[in-house]
Design goal:
By secondary structure, this protein is an alpha/beta fold. The chain has 2 domains: 213 residues, Spore Coat Polysaccharide Biosynthesis Protein SpsA, Chain A (Alpha-Beta Complex), CATH 3.90.550; 99 residues, no CATH class. 43% of the residues lie in helices and 17% in strands. Strands 1, 2, 3, 4, 5, 6, 7, 8, 9 and 10 form a 10-stranded mixed sheet that branches. Strand 6 and strand 7 form a beta hairpin. The chain is globular and about 50 Å long. The N terminus and C terminus are likely disordered.
Length: 323
């Protein structure tokens, strides 16, 4: 029995109420660290690893270290849509997402399940993100708490119109009804599409700071590639799901904030191609959802002057650049 397996075997968790889906690609060492932390959680959730066509022996290493984990071979690099395979593979009513360089704090998964149990209209809860060994709170967490979106007593927590996939727990039924993560979007800004569909379908999303997730950013990151993908996805979403006036404003603000280099030029060309290819699918979000977007865009938190240090800070950077 492996060390990870030994840690995960003594006690059962909350039945089949919640499963964890971990998305990975060529980060074997980081993934094994994450699995070690997940195996030690008191909730003892079943773990599903979706391998986006790794070439570093990831799947074999997982099967040796944690035989109880289910490994799904995506058959190619599906990007964020690989998570859909993990959600489809479980019948647990709630699914927590993890990246290969993140893991949940003990007790937070139970807290997320309790929050979803308590409110039938709640589709997703997002946790506080603590970065690195110093457990530095990611700036996006404070921004969410300070956002001008109106709060309600039910459900509790800070309202969301977007979320960080790797720090969230979803209601499986709502996720599947929304179609999951859109294919072909890669990694970076892919959450906008799912969030808009959930909100359009009448579901609610909340940030709960009492839940925590640890993020040790992998050194195997391609910051420029991710920034480029986020720009593509954000622009495509604006033109395919929002009023044309909002799409124009978003485009002007994002392009004005982006560095003028070859990467930005490629991103703009790719966004134009994506919008043209999918124009027949254009469908505006409901008026109340658009009003929430406009409210956030009229709110101007302090802007960052230094480059983002983590994937979640990259998401916050893009949102600020567009506001």
């Amino acid at each position: 029995m492996s060390e990870i397996e030994r840690e995960s075997s003594p006690m059962a968790g909350p039945g089949n109420q919640l499963a964890v889906v971990v998305l990975t690609r060529n980060r074997r060492d980081e993934l094994l660290r994450t699995l070690g932390h997940l195996a030690s959680l008191p909730e003892r959730p079943p773990v599903i690893v979706v391998d986006n066509a790794s070439t570093d022996g990831t799947s074999a290493a997982v099967q040796r270290a944690l035989p109880s984990a289910r490994v799904i071979q995506a058959g190619g690099n599906l990007g964020a849509a690989g998570r859909n395979l993990g959600v489809q593979a479980t019948d647990a009513p709630y699914v927590a997402f993890c990246d290969d360089d993140t893991w949940w704090e003990p007790g937070s998964l139970a807290g997320a399940a309790a929050a979803l149990d308590a409110c039938a209209s709640l589709a997703l809860v997002m946790a506080r993100v603590l970065v690195g060994p110093e457990n530095r709170e990611d700036p996006i967490c404070r921004e969410i708490l300070e956002s001008p979106l109106p709060r309600t007593l039910e459900p509790p927590g800070a309202p969301l119109v977007g979320f960080l996939a790797g720090a969230s727990v979803v209601r499986r039924k709502a996720f599947l009804e929304a179609g999951g993560f859109r294919s072909g979007m890669g990694i970076g800004g892919e959450e906008d599409w799912l969030a808009a569909t959930l909100l359009s379908n009448g579901w609610k999303m909340r940030y709960l700071p009492q839940l925590s997730l640890y993020h040790y950013p992998s050194p195997n990151r391609h910051a420029e590639r991710r920034r480029r993908q986020m720009l593509i996805n954000t622009l495509a979403f604006a033109w395919l799901r929002r009023p044309l006036s909002s799409a124009v404003r978003k485009t002007c603000r994002l392009t004005a904030a982006a560095p003028w280099n070859a990467g930005t030029a490629v991103a703009l060309a790719s966004a134009i191609w994506t919008v043209g290819k999918n124009w027949r699918e254009r469908r505006r979000v409901p008026a109340d959802v658009e009003a929430a977007y406009r409210l956030l865009e009229s709110w101007r938190p302090d802007r960052r002057s230094s480059p983002p240090a983590s994937d979640t800070e990259e998401a916050a950077y893009v949102m600020r650049s567009g506001s």
